[in-house]
Amino acid sequence: MSVGYTVAQVAKILDQSPDQVRGLVRQGLVQALRGPRNEYRFTFQDLLLLRTACGLREKKVPLRKVRGALEALRAQLPEGRPVSAVQVLAEGHEVVVQDAQARWVPTSGQMLFDFDVAALKEKVRALVPSAPAEAAPDADRDLDAEGWLKVARELEVDAPERARDALRRALERAPEHPEARLVLARLLHDEGWSEQGLAHVGLVLKLAPECGQAHLLLGAIQEDLNALPQAEAAYRRGLKLLPTDKQAHLSLGRLLQRLGRTEQASTLLKAFRDLDE
Hints:
Layout (H helix, E strand, L loop, with lengths): L6 H8 L3 H9 L6 E2 L5 E2 L2 H15 L4 H13 L11 E5 L2 E5 L4 E6 L8 H11 L17 H11 L4 H14 L4 H13 L3 H14 L4 H13 L3 H14 L4 H13 L3 H15 L1
């Protein structure tokens, strides 16, 4: 059994999309573990760092300042140290990191953010129960494709395997249901089954070639498979179809940074920041 929280679980805990969680990892804000299929896995300390990053970004703190604050926070979270002793908050226009012994300013920014570890632990306990398998079985339910899709949406975070089964049942009833197939592709990608996810998103694009979200998911899968030219083409297509989508600008901008095309990347990341504001 894989250790750690999945992308989908972290996304629900932090009220982010799975793409936003993967984006925070690719931006270097946290170093995630890898599961048996090379999927991202997160420790509770990773959740603390990501929660902090989301709070700082919501307050419009520049990315370089977020990185600085998190580098300081990482330095205060060695293996075995209680995370409840650490806070990230603001004093005036300064980002302050505080533990039981000291407080210091790793970078400056305009924000007000109180990092509540106890509340985060409560959300984790609520989301990841000790016995998730106790839920009622779905096998005997007589539903149409839309019904199974709704079941999958309810299960995708707490029971992704059952969600995938529900989506397969939806596709048995309506093989050309693009939304069910797209959700299945995303779940497979989140769990590290990138090749299978790629096959399903390819079918979605045959059914709905103008689906911008499918092109963006295709780009994310291609990027994880290190097929960078194909990922760039998919992101560009998704951005053309969804010109005001923040994630489209961010995904393509990050990829261009990775390819060393900093000027083009800067233009896209500025557009992302403008949309974010």
